[in-house]
Amino acid sequence: MQETVRFPAEWEPQSAILIAWPNADTDWAERLAEVEETYIALVAAITRFQRVVICVADDDVETYAEMRLRSNRIDMERVRFVTVPYDDTWLRDSGPIALRAGDGFRLLDFRFTGWGGKYGASDDDRLVERLTAQGVFATQERQVIDFALEGGAIETDGDGTLLTTWQCLHERHPDASREELTAKLAGWLQQERVLWLDHGALEGDDTDAHIDTLARFAPGNGIVFQACDDEADSHYADLKAMADEIAALRTKDGKPYRLFPLPWAQPVIDIAEDGSRRLAASYANFLIVNGAVLMPAYGDPADDAAAAVLAAAFPGREIVQVPCRPLIWQNGSLHCITMQLPEGLA
């Protein structure tokens, strides 16, 4: 019999969440103390529900991270450290994309190019290879694919439908047609359909419009997406066009999706010596764990409203707010720094 291969949805049972601890050799160096507090809050939230695997650059980073976590009364029985080199901590894009393959897993190891060559990524591009060599993942085969693709650029419903954005994939592969990219993604990721969004991009996002900052699947044919109701905001027209695109999408059965628009946070401006810039405070960058949804909170009045939307989209799961304002300084948020490992993989 032919082996069944499937790309599971994020809300399916998980073994652990994979992250990498920030340190002075990463881009977090300038604001390390602030971002460490977010990582501590994140690990505290994850370990309430499941295990976390933490990549550390060396023994000193591990010792320090363990000390910080223990001092915050983290359940260390649910924490595993793995020493491995990494350029930065955005593991959604450099970590493994795991497909279920029979009784095991197929780990897809795409090329990671630092989001189209914007940043150095030589160690990040070898992360899956090195973690595999250390035996971090159980019962799996690693498939190396010479094609630039980041995990934050794709979203699956676990039932054969993939959601992505044209801007990102076209930026990475400008000579490929939509038909060619559709065929490649569907083949590697075992998808029946690929749905494309042509609109939607956030200021302060340097990923070229990753889908996980814009729109996410939810169980029962739902789509949670970042909306903008402020007509005076520079994002209004594009996010309205994206909302219209999403409303026009249909399930495999030809029915409209159940839609869950997320509220719009007030602009977050980073003021530096070389000028000011707007940061991408998206509520769509949430992380699903066993029994809960961890959502990025920005200290904004819309935080609680976003939590209510997620509670409606993911009934029966606890909604846990994690302070993520320090993360968006480096152009990402909660989902971007994590990668879920499906049940049985770790």
From TrEMBL:
Keywords: Hydrolase. GO terms for molecular function: agmatine deiminase activity; protein-arginine deiminase activity. SUPFAM superfamilies: Pentein (SSF55909). Signal peptide: none annotated. One of its GO terms (biological process) is putrescine biosynthetic process. The keyword Hydrolase applies. This is Agmatine deiminase family protein. It comes from Thermomonas aquatica.
